[in-house]
Amino acid sequence: MRIENRSGHPNWRRLKIAWLFDDISSGTTPSSTNEEYYKDGEIPWVNTGDLTDGKLSSVNKKITRKAIADYPALKVHPKNSLIVALYGATIGKLAITQFDVTTNQACCVLNQPRNINIDFVFYWFLANREGIIQRSVGGGQKNISQGIIRSLRIDVPSLTVQNRIINFLDQKTSEIDTLISDKEKLIALLEEKRQAIITETVTKGLNPDVKMKDSGVEWIGEIPEHWEISSLNLHLKESKTKNIGNKEKNVLSLSYGRIKRRNIKNNFGLLPESFETYRVVKNGDIVLRLTDLQNDKRSLRVGLVKEKGIITSAYLTLVPNQNILSEYASLLLHAYDLKKVFYGFGSGVRQSIGFQELKKLPILLPSKEEQYDICIYLKNFTENIDETLIQLKEQITKLKEYRQSLIYEAVTGKIDIQEMLKETEQEEVSSS
């Protein structure tokens, strides 16, 4: 979405951002090795990671008055300042401060407005973010400098109209945000239920009346009496087949617990000089990403391969034998992953697990028939949950798109706010 050139309203004036604020500036970063600049700090110091496209209610770091004294670039900006992220992953993110702050060099602060409501400017930046980012410069890291922000032109209505627009958008965006929040909470509950059912089913079975026995493993607890329990290496072996000669071209990756085809043409992420070092995997193999355990305790680390291809040798590939179904073994290891079992096995600087550490992992073994029944039950259950999750996520996407469109049309004068407010009042009267 490009920045709108004209509002179409004869009473709206087109003005540069530089003309609308007496102070547009950035900050800097005090030396992180000097404890005097941070210990017992009392002045909020904003990083772009603190910006959440709303009111700034908290920050991650505070600095001391000595830092302010030693770094002239550090200004203390008053409450109700607008902050814009200039570069990095958060480029274009916004916040309006609710207390006095100072910032680092990646933030641009606009304050001391002249005949303009800061909330109107906030909504304008939000509506035109994509167009502003398109003006960025730089190669690897996009940068929307202070100069770019100062040069932006904004159509400004009277303060009365600005306030009317702000009140309208505050109400409407709050309603939309509540709907989005409710759907996100439902998604979290469904995902939690999904995980709980998978874990319960692969460790307890489908029969609630079956006689149980102690598994001897604290984090597994009781299991059906007729189930066997033995070591992983008795039922799954490691596969190390290399892609010699680059014969296989189907590059796969593990993402959020699913094995997917990787589009290497878009060059997203690091690519090797040759894919000969990659491992060949086939339908039914199980892939585990058991590296960097100390840094990431949220990722799903187990995936079931459903097509022949190649995957990085940094991952562990397991091949089930005739005693255990691939789908069941994958679900069981997935349940272990949800219980965060793998994090207790890691060692070394990267806290990685190899087959030697994993081979004594306890494996629960129902009969093949029961394994099959468990897989069918969980397939049907998870498909229903996943379908609902997809629908909810699509609804959230549409709500966010509607929110963005509403803001854009309001701050560019595309919709008559007064007329919409009348329609809303009439709807409320009709429904009461």
Automatic annotation (TrEMBL):
Cross-referenced CDD domains: RMtype1_S_MspEN3ORF6650P_TRD2-CR2_like
Ranges annotated as spanning the membrane: none
Domain of life: Bacteria
GO molecular function, one term: endonuclease activity
Keyword match Lipid biosynthesis: no
Keywords: DNA-binding, Endonuclease, Hydrolase, Nuclease, Restriction system
Occurrences of domain Type I restriction modification DNA specificity (ranges): 24-178, 302-397
InterPro entries assigned to the protein according to its UniProt record, in alphabetical order: Restrct_endonuc_typeI_TRD, Restrct_endonuc_typeI_TRD_sf, Type-I_RS_S_subunit
Family: Belongs to the type-I restriction system S methylase family.
Official protein name in the record: Restriction endonuclease subunit S
Organism: Salinicoccus jeotgali
